[in-house]
Structure formats: C-alpha cells, structure tokens
Write a structure and sequence with these properties.
The chain is mostly helical. The chain has ten helices and four strands. The N terminus is likely disordered.
C-alpha cells in the first residue's frame, strides 16, 4: 500500500535514468529541463539491456504502458523531467507511436502532462497529494473491509494468504515496482470479495496513483516494503478473528503510515 510512506524509489541497476542529457545541453531547454534518452548531438544514448526486455502477453501499446508504469513507480522516470516519444521509443526498441499512445493514457491518469513540441513531463506530486489520496482510499476501503469482516465466513480469509505472502516475497527483494504490483493484487483480491467490480476498479486506480513517488523524498528502503507487506498478514489475522476494531485500525494505519 505504501500510501502514507512518501518515499522515492531506489533507482535500478546503474543509478540514474538511462540516456540523461549532458549538463551542457540543458541550456537548450526551458527552465533547465531536458529530454531524456538522447545525447547532446541528437543520437540516442545507450540503453541498458533490461530496459529492452518487454513482456509478450499484450499489444505493443500495452507492453509499453506496463513498462512506463513500472518506470514511474521505480523512479526511473523522474518527477518534473520531460521525455520525448522518439527517445523512449528508442529505449524500448519500438517506434514513437505506441509510446505516445501509452503516454496519452498516463496523461489521462495524471501521471504525466503533455509538453507541446517536446514530449511529456512527469507530474510533480507533494506530500499533500499523498495525504489526500490516503483520505479518499480510507473513505472507500475502510467501510468495505469492515463490511467483509462482518459477513465473509472466517474460513475464506485463508484464500487470500497466498496473495499476502507473494507481496511479502516481493517486498523482501527491495524492488519497489515488483512490490507495487503484488500490493495492488492483494487489495484487488480483498475488495473483490465485495462482488462490486466498480469499487475494485476505482480503488485500484487510486492505489496506483498512491504508488507514484514524490520528488525529493527519502529513498525507499527494503525494510519499509517488508513492514508494509507484513500488515497484509496482520489484517488477515484480524479478519479471521472478526476483530473489527483491529481491522479498522490496521486498514486506516496502512494508508497513513500511523
């Protein structure tokens, strides 16, 4: 969930963002911003091999959208920076068209904003943004989970343990993007027990937004992810015991970090 823990992600192997323009190129762009993925001479910068590995289960646009979402969560795409479609296309080994299409979707989600004739700027977010998301998520999920605690047979909570354990395993790797996916999967499974598909969709979108890092925040630690994942298992124990007070406390505290 990580909602109340406003950390930026630790960059992946090879710190920084691949293809960052050299300092002398900054003067060519507004307010010192620069387009990543290109050298000062216009030729694409080298791209790490891991950036080229793409899943094959979706369309090219879907693959790129998944890759960009992971890059946002991990911090590889830096808040406030501008990225061009052609440069990102070179990074992922595709044309600029599916990149632009994926970026348009991210713009609709609020993750980036369009910069005419330049590309897309990663949205800067504040601690207040995280706090507001935490408040909205609590308004939706706390009553939903309390309702489940009162009505779902206790034996069914064991069905969610594999999802909680998968999140704990992902947290132990220190990979924020991997943990983010496992974290949302647990929440989808939990809220899915309500039978309300609209609730699951809305809550998942809010959860996704809450996982984007904010600028200039302390780096996320593996210990933070492990502690966050442990709360999933604690919640399942409280649900099994039908301890409504503990359930409410755990869900609220999970969002706010309290």
């Amino acid at each position: 969930m990580e909602q109340g823990r406003p950390h930026t992600a630790v960059p992946g192997p090879g710190t920084g963002v691949p293809g960052r323009a050299a300092p002398e190129a900054h003067a060519e762009h507004v307010r010192g911003e620069h387009v990543h993925g290109e050298s000062p001479y216009g030729a694409p910068a080298p791209v790490p091999a891991q950036a080229r590995r793409m899943p094959q289960r979706y369309s090219v646009r879907g693959q790129i959208l998944d890759a960009l979402r992971k890059a946002l969560v991990s911090g590889e795409l830096v808040p406030g920076e501008v990225y061009s479609g052609p440069a990102l296309g070179e990074r992922f080994g595709v044309s600029a068209t599916p990149v632009r299409e994926a970026m348009q979707q991210l713009a609709l989600e609020g993750a980036v904003e369009v910069v005419p004739n330049r590309g897309f700027r990663v949205t800067r977010r504040s601690a207040r943004d995280l706090a507001e998301l935490a408040e909205v998520r609590a308004l939706i999920e706390v009553p939903a989970v309390l309702g489940l605690a009162r009505t779902v047979p206790t034996a069914r909570w064991s069905e969610l343990r594999p999802a909680a354990e998968a999140a704990a395993t992902a947290a132990a790797t220190g990979d924020r993007a991997r943990y983010a996916e496992a974290d949302r999967a647990f929440h989808r499974a939990l809220l899915g027990l309500t039978g309300n598909r609209q609730l699951v969709t809305v809550a998942d979108e809010l959860h996704r937004r809450a996982q984007w890092p904010i600028a200039q925040a302390p780096a996320v630690r593996t210990a933070d992810l492990i502690a966050d994942a442990a709360e999933h298992l604690a919640l399942l124990e409280a649900l099994t015991a039908r301890d409504l007070r503990a359930v409410e406390s755990l869900v609220r505290g999970h969002f706010t970090g309290a």
